[in-house]
Amino acid sequence: MNRLAKILILSIAVSLGGVLVACGGVPSNSVATVADDPITTETFNKWMGIAAKSQGQQNPGAPVVIPDAPNFVNCVSQKQAALPKATAKAPSPTAAQLKSECQAQFDSQKGQVMQLLITSAWIEGQAKAMGVTVSDSEVRKQFDKTKKGAFPTEAAYQKFLKQSGETEDDILFRIKIDALSTKIRDAALKGADQVSDQAVAKYYASHLQQFGQPETRDIAVIQTKTKAEAEKAKAALSANYSNWAAVAKQYSTDKASVATGGVKRGVVQGQDPNFTQAFSEKLNGQPIIIRTADGNYDLIRVVAVNKGVVQPLDKARASIVQALKQTQQQTTLQNFVKSFQETWKKRTQCAKIYIVDLCGNAPKAAAQPGPGTVQQAPAQQQAP
I need a surface site. Which of 28, 71, 171, 323 has the fewest CB within 10 A? Predict the structure, then answer.
């Protein structure tokens, strides 16, 4: 599907500070109101037709049927007209069955259309409240860019319009909504990329392990299964422990350390709980026997302390600023979206058969990411 066709399902949301609740009912000629401004049934039916044609393109040869709620008279009639001749083995579905199909189609397409219409109204209302505008020339420029990338010829573009049921004004409108949402999002994030020196210093101090190599220790170890065997290994060591490798080869059950002369090198504190005590022992001190987490016994001795190297703050600053900036922007955006969804949903009322999750009078449900959140708003329009 090309870019212009995809625009049909575009839904983007932004946030508003205050809480204003829609009042009054939905007019009889409307499907919903947003801040008391109606979304008319005529507009809804128009976009239902576009949605039906879009669905029809995915099923070539199938008739394009627009479900006309709530009675579906035209829908049932169209389906009946398209039925093949009935036979004894393949009788035609009843009107009730066809009406059920129309209802299912309506329910499927209703959500998509209502989301488009409601979120578009939300964005226009938010833009007005924030004083955000998009000029006709900006919209036309983006339209021309998108059109050029999507359609090789004018004839191809006109064919798309005919097949989709849309007009150029429809596409221009949705491009405008897209541009408004991007500008509103950018305005909401203004200042969220500023990181103070105090914040950088605090992050650095609490994340030193991220900015260099920690101290490590080389630990001579002889692993045994019992304390008695560990005592035998300790007794077998020479006065200056120069025969550690030979004793490890004789007594240790750890083949890996035996292969390195009975020494584990570059052990980081906390890496192995069995060596926690080694980090409180003095360099080249007396061997000690420890009981390991699995119930065995190790004879250990610290033979080297390798000092850690920490990157200075001025070298780490760039990466810290980037990390803090990303966190601040994400938090700001999440708060922005949450405020928007709560605010505009309260301002939206829908007629009974048109209720979707975005309606303030929708049944209570577990919190879910709303359709068209700011995260989905493209930072920049791109040609298909």
Answer: 28
